[in-house]
Amino acid sequence: MPRHALLLEYDGRGFAGWQRQDGQMTVQQALEEAAARLALSQAPSSAAAGRTDAGVHAGGQVAHLDLDRPLEPARLRDALNVHLRPHPVAILAAAPVAADWHARFNATGRAYRYVILDRPAPPALEAGRVWHVPRRLDAAAMHHAAQVLVGRHDFSSFRAAACQAKDPVKTLARLDAARHGDHVVIVAEARSFLHHQVRNMVGTLVRVGQGRWTAADVRVALDARDRAAAGRTAPAEGLCLTGVTHNPAPLWADG
Amino acid sequence: MPRHALLLEYDGRGFAGWQRQDGQMTVQQALEEAAARLALSQAPSSAAAGRTDAGVHAGGQVAHLDLDRPLEPARLRDALNVHLRPHPVAILAAAPVAADWHARFNATGRAYRYVILDRPAPPALEAGRVWHVPRRLDAAAMHHAAQVLVGRHDFSSFRAAACQAKDPVKTLARLDAARHGDHVVIVAEARSFLHHQVRNMVGTLVRVGQGRWTAADVRVALDARDRAAAGRTAPAEGLCLTGVTHNPAPLWADG
Lengths: 255, 255
What we know:
The structure is a homodimer.
Chain A: E1 3-10, H1 27-37, E2 46-48, E3 57-66, H2 73-84, E4 89-97, E5 107-117, E6 131-132, H3 139-146, E7 151-154, E8 169-180, E9 183-190, H4 197-209, H5 215-224, E10 239-246
Parallel strand pairs in A: 3-10, 5-6
Antiparallel strand pairs in A: 1-3, 1-4, 2-3, 5-9, 5-10, 7-8, 8-9
Helix pairs in contact in A: 1-2, 3-4, 3-5
């Protein structure tokens, strides 16, 4: 039962998130159905590094998939892409991995990007890909306040009620906010995140960008260890899982 | 009858191009219907700098629109955006212009960007926005060959049969091709272009990027003054009208 790692890109608008759910199309279901159509596996089973929510995009999601027979990685990639149509998912690369390698449990880092469009006009070209905030934000103040959150903390104030993690303590390696034209781009990196953590941090930083909060208010919210103390959950559409690191890393094939 | 210039962004997938056509939704019709709903004009009439084809996007289209009564530019922008929903068009800015100012006839330059995604996997996040070419192109060779086309030439070999221009001689100010990761981005600038000229030049440059043609072959194709001598028409979805310059330039208001 050869196991393969897969590097995936998807448009979250087409799915009710990564994880299989009754009655709704998910990325996991689309992938497993494509593998089944390929007759690569009788009961395809997959897992992903990041269990993205409905509407959240991915440019660098990593999953693993078990096959009944070995297949050359570039052929696996191309065959899955044919059978994934018309779902907005693409397999960018495939790599053979050990039978006990796990996309989630071997992951050592996740990187997310959150994009805010802060101009009066709504998005036409980027609809469904950005959070539209009609008034200009202070990106420098957002970046400054974000540094309060970097490091090892109890992130209970930024954790969804439905979060299943045992421990609310996480180490945030990076949280940068920067202006690029009419966009504020926020990059978050950590070994792992709590459920909704990135979106809850973004919602809080937007309060700072609007001049309603300071970095000191963000610290108070963090220390409160209470979801009600922090800002709103930013919409899913601005979020993209851009990359995952693993140990050992899959050897993605070229071609 | 105050005339306003409008700066527009739109997703070309939602439209049968800019120009009004019976039985199909166009950007011009969406704009004029929004103006009519606003009761800003009894018989709204508009014109655009670039009459983009079906599927072609715009990030910096410029149009003009006549109103029955004066309106502050930021209010005009916001009100049109409300009434343009759910069409994928946004008014980025508005500016009052003289009654004889014309979005098309006062235009002094047009800039287009064409994006090719040259990787094996089809686009998931950029579907409808890029031309997918599965095999890697030689972007440096494309840029080199593109310079053959820069300058004043008879572009008959790159002109659609339906082109209504009186004169096939145009001055191409810039044609650059450059690699950005998995993308080859082509930027074309001129005072004006023939119908399909950018897409026909891109289709020809892709032959060079595939190693099938050299810069000398592009020169032979140009000199032939025959559409059949050049490459195929690249698909509409990769093309975006990114900007237009005018004399006099509209004074876009902030806020």
